[in-house]
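I need you to check the entry underneath: sequence plus fold tokens. Let me know what the token row says about the fold.

>
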Amino acid sequence: MAGPYADQLEACFRKADLDGDSRISGAEAVAFFQGSNLPKPVVAQIWMHADQNKIGFLGRPEFYNALRLVTVAQGKRDLTPNIVKAALYGPTAAEKKNCCFTD
């Protein structure tokens, strides 16, 4: 992962990875993303989009995608297919600032 926010994204990943197994489980994601103050149905929708392979875990790329979607949802935007696509694959997808919102 390169870019100006790589260290912050990695710090968020390490903070969310409670058991240190280099992947984020559903339980770890719930614990981490509760700090986003998003409704649970929105967090569930984010998980659905981030866990595209439906394996029940997020690696770093999938977790970073989830962070992007959290940022979108915190901006009061619905996670429509077009918005999700733009957030995950658009030109500004790699340009995310501080993503750790839990204490």
Remarks:
- The first helix runs from residue 6 to 16.
